[in-house]
Amino acid sequence: MTTPIVELRETHVVHRARSGTLLSRDRVYALTGANLSIAPGETIGVVGESGCGKSTLAKTLVGVQRPTSGTVSFQGHDLWTMNPAARRTAIGTRTGMIFQDPSTALNRRLSIRQILRDPLDVHKRGSARERDSRVRELMDLVGLPKVLADGLPGQLSGGQRQRVAIARALALEPDLVVADEPTSALDVSVRAQILNLLLDLKERLGLALVFVSHDIQTVRRMSDRVVTMYLGRIVEESPAAEILDRARHPYTRALFSATPGLLDPIDPIPLVGPVPSATHPPSGCPFRTRCWKADEVCATAMPNPEPAGPAHTFRCHHPVGEGQSTHELVTQAAATAPPSREHP
Ligand SMILES: Nc1ncnc2c1ncn2[C@@H]1O[C@H](COP(=O)(O)OP(=O)(O)OP(=O)(O)O)[C@@H](O)[C@H]1O
């Protein structure tokens, strides 16, 4: 079996609540008990509503976020027990991260050439001449004309800036790249170009890619496997090809049913109320306060992961039946009395 590029085992990230005072005991459970393994060259899409922990998961995978407990193994080595110099090298050279907004992610005082040389200089890659040649190669790779090398980020279009950010993330030939909403700050007209560039680079360079997005259509198109998150928990992992009609978690089905244009025109599966606070998550299954299938069992314990096929697991006490259509679920949910909102 190949060693995963990165593997999370029972990984938790807990923050102090932003609105709290220094003495506040409020905690945000941003990532809870995450188990996830990413193989070399694999593309994982991460979906879920705002605040469910997608970015926290992504940052934890590339070592930008230190977990509160649990492990992050990078190429078989525990990232947070290795010595700090080895960790900095692993994070700095083997992983790359592409952020949502290239305008803020790039230093606006540095030229494109300096931005792309920086990681090569920091990690002392090759001679000065080799670094210059790598900068030219990187610009080529992401389709940036060489004449832009001496320009500043502010002189570039949004799409060109994101190409610079992608080139910078690839400068040291990482094995794993995380793209966190890489197109949401861009004009609609250039989004497809950037996505196609990422897909093309991933194929050519054999990268593992973690792709976080609210755009469920795109996640499905880009990914081999899709991870559904709800309130800090991974509730389902499914091959992208199965996610629409064979997902077993009621939340995955509800999320996808609410995406225009994915299924035949249907009303979305109705969910009750808002997402609960990540500071006071419900006991048991976090989705139970909005789920039409929830009963008292769901309030007692978080369900264990259940296999649903190769590379497909879900965590639910009352999963959607195999082969059950989303149309049926819409009717079922509409006819079911809302669950109790009392929690924990
Ligand atoms: N540094 C922090 N301090 C306190 N709370 C934080 C911090 N970072 C994230 N959070 C909280 O952790 C939870 C998960 O945040 P995260 O950004 O991972 O979610 P997300 O799914 O990526 O959200 P979005 O889709 O809106 O970007 C949220 O409740 C968020 O407010």
UniProtKB/TrEMBL annotation:
User: Where is the ABC transporter domain positioned along the sequence?
Assistant: 8-256
Which CDD domains does UniProt cross-reference here?
A: ABC_NikE_OppD_transporters
Which InterPro entries does this entry report, sorted A to Z? Answer: AAA+_ATPase, ABC_transp_ATP-bind, ABC_transporter-like_ATP-bd, ABC_transporter-like_CS, Oligopep_ABC_C, P-loop_NTPase
* Keywords of the record: ATP-binding, Nucleotide-binding, Transport
Database matches in Gene3D superfamilies: P-loop containing nucleotide triphosphate hydrolases
Please give the residue ranges the record annotates as the region Disordered. 322-344
BP GO annotations: peptide transport; transmembrane transport
Q: Where is the signal peptide?
A: none
GO MF terms here are: ATP binding; ATP hydrolysis activity
The UniProt entry, under SUPFAM superfamilies, shows:
P-loop containing nucleoside triphosphate hydrolases
State the PANTHER family in the record.
D,D-DIPEPTIDE TRANSPORT ATP-BINDING PROTEIN DDPF-RELATED, TRANSPORT ATP-BINDING PROTEIN
Family from the record: Belongs to the ABC transporter superfamily.
| UniProt-recorded name of the protein | Oligopeptide transport ATP-binding protein OppF
